[in-house]
Design a protein that fits this description.
The protein is of the alpha+beta class. The chain contains twelve helices and seven strands. The strands form three sheets. The chain has a three-stranded antiparallel sheet. Strands 4-5 form a two-stranded antiparallel sheet. A hairpin with a 2-residue loop joins strand 2 and strand 3. 18% of the residues are buried.
Length: 319
């Protein structure tokens, strides 16, 4: 994380008078949160549901009047049998005040979400504070309402900007389930979801394989152009199934027999699904730009690069 000279100046100024540098502390906390998030994402992508034995280090890298704050965090990814955690006071089971407050806020906000196209800033802060990930489906509905309404007031624009940051705080599995399960909720939301999948490295060949029959080829191609932070051997088979599905797309070009006059001979014309003539069965349409499978040249390039990625993964997994 970059720490600019102004912040360093005020940090030094505060230290001289025995105070605490809030701006510098803010940068340190921000860097720690990013490091923790990346650690959890990597553990989740490996199939873990917890990280134990974590260790955190802080370092400052300086040079040429510039300064960088580096936070490194390491731990051991594990799979644990999660059971409901309770706080025991003496012989009587109990819950903490934070647990109680969280449940109250979860219930309150869940009711407040119904039919909304935005949420007040104070509510968003509560969601962030208590990490109310259970609200994710309701928050996605509000996001859809906001973008479809083409919101004009500031609060609605704030919500549209806030929701992607909420997705960033979800685990890989939770984010994948939420986004892929809602790809069919409308064109506007679908395009936003694909963008979120791409931005947050949420490529999931397993999810795409499950959706092959229910989403269009153009959406499938948009999804296979995204990526994930850590690939495993279990990704290869569903990736191959996706390619197989795309390559077996029925031809949309058709042959038409035509006559130029009453006594003229019949001639064969190849037409695209859009109705335009095509030079050959395997050629691209001059009007819509698609080949016999309905793919444009750019989409064919994406598919070929995807096939190449599969080949590289196989090679790397063997080594």
């Amino acid at each position: 994380m970059g720490v600019n000279l102004v912040k360093e100046f005020f940090a030094s100024f505060s230290d001289v008078f025995g105070g605490v540098s809030g701006r510098y502390t803010e940068e340190m906390n921000k860097a720690l949160e990013v490091a923790k998030k990346q650690l959890m994402e990597k553990a989740s992508s490996m199939g873990a549901n917890a990280v134990v034995g974590t260790h955190i280090d802080y370092d400052e890298l300086s040079g040429k009047e510039k300064s960088m704050l580096m936070v490194s965090i390491v731990g051991t990814a594990v799979v644990v049998d999660v059971s409901e955690e309770k706080v025991v006071v003496g012989d009587t089971p109990g819950v903490t005040n934070d647990e109680l407050r969280r449940m109250i806020e979860l219930t309150r906000i869940k009711k407040a979400c119904e039919g909304k196209s935005f949420l007040p800033q104070a509510t968003l802060e509560v969601i962030d504070k208590y990490q109310l990930v259970e609200l994710a489906p309701s928050l996605l509905d509000i996001y859809q309402n906001a973008i479809e309404k083409d919101a004009k007031i500031s609060m609605e624009y704030d919500y549209i900007a806030w929701f992607p940051s909420f997705i960033e705080r979800l685990t890989y599995d939770d984010a994948v389930d939420l986004l892929y399960n809602n790809l069919e909720k409308g064109v506007l939301l679908r395009d936003k979801i694909v963008t979120l999948i791409d931005k947050n490295h949420l490529f999931s060949p397993q999810k795409i394989q499950q959706l092959l029959e229910s989403i269009s080829n153009s959406v499938i191609i948009s999804l296979i152009s995204t990526n994930k932070k850590l690939y495993t051997a279990s990704d290869i088979a569903p990736m191959e199934k996706i390619v197989e599905y795309l390559e077996n797309t029925p031809s949309s070009h058709f042959v038409e027999e035509t006559k130029s006059g009453l006594f003229s001979k019949e001639s064969t014309v190849i037409r695209c699904k859009c109705g335009s003539k095509v030079g050959s069965v395997d050629g691209y349409c001059g009007s819509c730009g698609s080949n016999k499978c309905g793919f444009t040249k750019n989409e064919v390039t994406v598919i070929e690069e995807f096939k190449q990625s599969i080949s590289y993964l196989k090679s790397l997994m063997k080594s």
